[in-house]
Design a protein that fits this description.
216 residues, alpha+beta, Jelly Rolls, seven-stranded antiparallel sheet, 31% strand, binds N-(carboxycarbonyl)-S-(naphthalen-2-ylmethyl)-L-cysteine
Length: 216
C-alpha cells in the first residue's frame, strides 16, 4: 500500500522521494494555484479543452489542451507534438511566466536545474474520469524530467513499473502537489484512478493537472 510511504516521514517534510528519480513536492504549488488555474482558464479560452481521439478511434475520457511552443495531440494517426492547435489552426497560447517559473523551480528542487519546458499539457478530469496506464515517450530526450502539478479535486495516481504488467503503487495527489518524474522513473507506466466526486473550493467539480515537458 502506498499510503505506507507517507507513514514513515516527518509530517513537516515537504519533499518525498517516491522512487529513484521521482520526487513529490507536497503543496509546492499551493500559493501559485489560484494564478495557475486562472491562467489555465485563459489558455482554454483560446485553445479549448477537447477530448482527443485515440488511434483506435475512441475518445479519451480526459479533456486536454496545451500551452507553449509545442502541444501534445492524439488522433487517428497517433500521438505527437505539434506547433499548432488542430482545433483552431493557430499556435498554442504561450506558456505564461507563472507556469514556467513554477515548473523550473520544482525541477531545480528535485535536482534538474536545466529544465526548460517547451510544452505544457493541461488535463481536466470530471468526476469518474480516469487515465489508463501508459508511458510518456513522445518527447525527444528522456534525460529531461516531466513536472506535474495537481490542482482541484484529489486523485489516486497509479505509479507502475517499467513493464505494463508491473503492479502500480497508489499515490494520493492533492491540490498543490507537484511531482518531478525523471531519471530511472521517466519511462515508468502510470495512470490515474477514476476521480471521485466532490467540490473543491478552487475548481468546483474538476481535477486539473499540468504536465511540463521538454518536447523537442
Ligand atoms: C510518471 N497525466 O498527461 S501526471 C499525462 O494526472 C499524465 O493527468 C497524469 O500521465 C495526470 O501524460 C499524471 C504525472 C506523471 C506524468 C508523467 C510521468 C507521471 C509520470 C512520466 C513518467 C512517470
Ligand atoms: Fe503520462
Amino acid at each position: 500500500m502506498t499510503a505506507d510511504l507517507f507513514d514513515d516521514v516527518d509530517p513537516d517534510q515537504r519533499s518525498l522521494v517516491l522512487a529513484p528519480g521521482a520526487t513529490l513536492l507536497r503543496g509546492f504549488a499551493s500559493d501559485a494555484a489560484r494564478r495557475l488555474l486562472d491562467e489555465a482558464e485563459a489558455v482554454a479560452a483560446v485553445a479549448p479543452f477537447r477530448r482527443m481521439e485515440k488511434p483506435g478511434g475512441l475518445a479519451m475520457a480526459v479533456a486536454m489542451t496545451n500551452c507553449g511552443t509545442f502541444g501534445w495531440v492524439s488522433d487517428r494517426a497517433g500521438y505527437r507534438y505539434v506547433r499548432e492547435d488542430p482545433c483552431t489552426g493557430r499556435p498554442w497560447p504561450p506558456m505564461h511566466a507563472c507556469f514556467l517559473s513554477l515548473a523550473t523551480a520544482a525541477a531545480s528542487c528535485a535536482g534538474y536545474p536545466d529544465f526548460r519546458p517547451d510544452a505544457c499539457l493541461i488535463n481536466r478530469y470530471a468526476p469518474g474520469t480516469r487515465l489508463s496506464l501508459h508511458q510518456d515517450r513522445d518527447e525527444r530526450d528522456f534525460a529531461a524530467p516531466i513536472v506535474s502539478v495537481s490542482l482541484g479535486l484529489p486523485a489516486v495516481f497509479l505509479f507502475g513499473g517499467e513493464r505494463r504488467r508491473d503492479r502500480p503503487a497508489r499515490v494520493p495527489l492533492r491540490h498543490g502537489d507537484v511531482v518531478v518524474w525523471g531519471g530511472p522513473s521517466r519511462l515508468r507506466f502510470h495512470g490515474v484512478e477514476p476521480v471521485g466526486s466532490g467540490n473543491h473550493p478552487a475548481t468546483g467539480a474538476w481535477r486539473v493537472n499540468l504536465t511540463f515537458r521538454m518536447a523537442q
